[in-house]
Specification:
Four Helix Bundle (Hemerythrin (Met), subunit A), 144 residues
Length: 144
């Protein structure tokens, strides 16, 4: 039987899956880029952005992005789980974060329209800020 505490792992696993999917898409896009441009893989050890197709570059940028704001999400989820403070608010923030990252990635590796991507990023930022705010309030409140 899954407890509420364990439910925090669902959005974490969604974020992990997203990262792995983007990595697989990146690998395929880089292979296609190398073929399309007639390059040799050994010549790309210090590849610059101009060495890749637009698709490979977008996927590379998105993959790097999966290790920026999500790091704060992973830490907050781990602390919430360890501290036993997973409640509907924490779960809601975590779910909103994971959903926003899917939307952000779809826009980033798709049409890459910044005016659409920005709001998706903002939702994730607000969600992870909410998670950390809950942790801070509960952590400081428990000690006093």
């Amino acid at each position: 039987m899954t407890t509420r505490q364990e439910l925090i792992l669902v959005p974490v696993l969604v974020q992990v899956a997203l990262t792995l999917i983007v990595l697989a898409l990146l690998a395929a896009a880089r292979r296609a880029s190398i073929r399309e441009r007639g390059q040799h893989v050994d010549d790309l050890g210090l590849a610059r952005d101009r060495d890749w197709t637009e698709r490979a570059l977008k996927l590379s940028n998105n993959f790097k992005n999966q290790f920026e704001l999500p790091v704060l999400f992973y830490a907050a989820a781990a602390f919430a789980f360890a501290a036993g403070v997973v409640d509907p608010w924490m779960l809601g923030f975590a779910a909103a974060f994971a959903a926003s990252r899917i939307v952000h990635a779809a826009i980033h590796i798709g049409p890459n329209i910044v005016s659409l991507r920005g709001p998706a990023y903002l939702v994730g930022y607000l969600a992870v800020t909410g998670m950390w705010t809950l942790l801070a309030v509960r952590g400081l409140g428990a000690g006093g």
